From TrEMBL:
This protein's record includes keyword Flavoprotein: yes
UniProt domain Acyl-CoA dehydrogenase/oxidase N-terminal: residue ranges: 11-118
Domain of life: Bacteria
InterPro entries with a match to the protein in the record: Acyl-CoA_Oxase/DH_mid-dom, Acyl-CoA_Oxase/DH_mid-dom_sf, AcylCo_DH-like_C, AcylCo_DH/oxidase_C, AcylCoA_DH/ox_N, AcylCoA_DH/ox_N_sf, AcylCoA_DH/oxidase_NM_dom_sf, Mycobact_Acyl-CoA_DH
PANTHER family: ACYL-COA DEHYDROGENASE, ACYL-COA DEHYDROGENASE FADE29
Name assigned to this protein: Alkylation response protein AidB-like acyl-CoA dehydrogenase
Annotated Acyl-CoA dehydrogenase/oxidase C-terminal domain residues: 230-367
Species the sequence originates in: Couchioplanes caeruleus
Amino acid sequence: MNLDLDAAACAFRDEVRDWLAANVPAGRLPSVDTPQGDAAHRAWERRLADAGLAVVSWPLEYGGRAVPPLHALLFEEEYHAAGAPARIGQNGLFLLAPTLLRHGTPAQRDRILPPMVRADEVWAQAWSEPEAGSDLAAIRSRGRRTDGGWLLSGQKTWSSRAAVADRAFGLFRTDPQASRHRGLTCVMFDLRAPGVTVRPIRQLDGDPGFAEIFLDDVFVPDSDVIGEPGDGWRVAMSTAGHERGQTLRSPGRFLAAAERLVALWRSGDGRDAATRNRVVDAWIGAQAYRMHTFAALDAPAGPFAASATKLFWSELDVALHETALDVLGARAETDAAWTDGYLFALAGPIYAGTNEVHRGIVAERMLGLPREVAR
């Protein structure tokens, strides 16, 4: 693995670093899940898009820069190191868009990607249901065939960004007679369409980061089906791979947090060896994740590697933030940045499939261990 950057990579990194230094807002934007934060973050996304930096890895025709994967990783490192705002469009940019680029039609890409780049349309992820979270194949929401499209009915829950989003994508059972993983269809729908009710869910911090979505015979045209009807499981697994892997949680995020943790330790009064070792372990973990990602550019990992990756980054995130709060001590009560980061990190072992589910995947499908005995 060669870690020396060539001239083109250095020039790109320097361009991104200079632009961010000149444009990143001086203070934190309001929470992305509030009306004020929604407007501020959409404005930030348009600023990125105007600079050609919203989605650097995308094809040129959709607003990207068509840069190689290494450049995209460098962009993420610079973005997080600069303390740039969270991405309100992340569900669309990092989950739906890669799915459309692989499984969508040219017409879908032409229609959906340009407004996504400029945050004119923000997307919610509508996977989970009241009795189908990590067990995604247990969904009960249905799609019923009608002239020119489908009628969607059912309930989605824990839908991220749904309280402020414009549209959503999710799985629906379109053939009730088929087995669990068959007869599913991946569909996009308008959150303001007749028959849709969005009910925000308040988090511990009081913001509606999630919402329930109720659908009552909501019409969607055939043109909003991703892939073939009945082939939704394959499409969804493609999306989940991006959610669990490095697309949504790039190493840059953890590198920046680890560097802030080291700086916090150096600025503090406490000097106990045990906490110092935890700071070191968190920094090493972030560097290890970076090295793993760089290595994967030359030798892509196997089909289930995203599960191992998700286990690593989600547990690293919790450990890193727990260490920061311990270093802060009583000051943690008034440090919103580390406290907010800790609360978000706690969700990591749950979303994108619980870590218990991913340990099962690693055990059975990567290591060939026997299935867990049902008790």
